[in-house]
Design goal:
With 329 residues, the protein is of the alpha/beta class. Helix content is 48%, strand content 9%. The strands form two sheets. It has a five-stranded mixed beta sheet with strand order 1-3-5-6-7. Residues 141-151 have a biased composition (Polar residues).
Length: 329
Amino acid sequence: MAELSDHDCDIIANLPLSNSLYRLQDLLQEAEQKYNDTADPRDEICQQAISKLLTTLMGERAAFKLGSRTGDENLASDLASLFRRLQQGHLTYDHCRALVRLVIQKDLNVDIWKAVLNLTITISRGSPPASVPPSFDGTPVKSTSSSQKGSEQTRELVNPRIFEEIRGCTFRAVEGFFDKHFEEKHWSGKVDAICRRVLARDSDGNWAQFPDPPTQDDVLAWWFRLQEDLLSESRGTYYTTASKADLTGSKAERQVDLLLRARGGSPSRNKHDWRDILVCGELKKSKEEIRTKGTLLQMSRYVREVFAAQPTRRFVHAFAVCGAKMEAW
């Protein structure tokens, strides 16, 4: 199984596991108790615990420094592959139980990382069982009927599962979040200058006059004028999709109102791939749809596609503009 080199040990010593991992203690202990009671490795609590454990380990600094034992990348990429297998139903609690116990016991960092490496090796050597159904119902590429009913029914199945996945770990208006991530950054001065120009009533474009009524076409026109005049030097470029055929890279058919891609990437302005999307945006005419469950789930479906296409992404920004109100996630 996995052996740690002196260099690996130095990385682990210099980049110790964060408290985020040990905050999972209660959830992991609950999963262990549930497994003892039911012996069901696909129990919802057990699977949720493994999901949280993998994503937390994926965010540890050492994961980006330790080399992969199954490929040419780093351990974080291997953990992303494990997470994808978990979502597909090919990884269960019993595969990860030894690792869970080490975390519960707060064992040595070296032993925990060795268990992680052993897990990636073990899973990579085995082929996924053909009889295991996927844990997420993907939207079919084409509807099975001309009325599109099949597609809508599939969405109705997917939404509750997404909601169950994000409930309990999705929070609004977290105190201190804005100050930590957006104040006193190297780009703060540029952002402030753009805001002052946008809101100045005597500015050339009179940007403070947001479309009223805020129809999608008018909002898109406003958005792209803003980009052309004020964001021409930004690192990303906003685009829209005219049809579902404009967006590739997923088995599900999706159409995104606004998406941000890195400037200088694919030369196509009309065709996009989920692998290239940095930020997703949703436009709605009614201000009543801001902060609703339906709008959040719609953004979550887009974010789910981004993570599926970019498994090493640690976070994805998304936003909704409903009427003249905007909420960013």
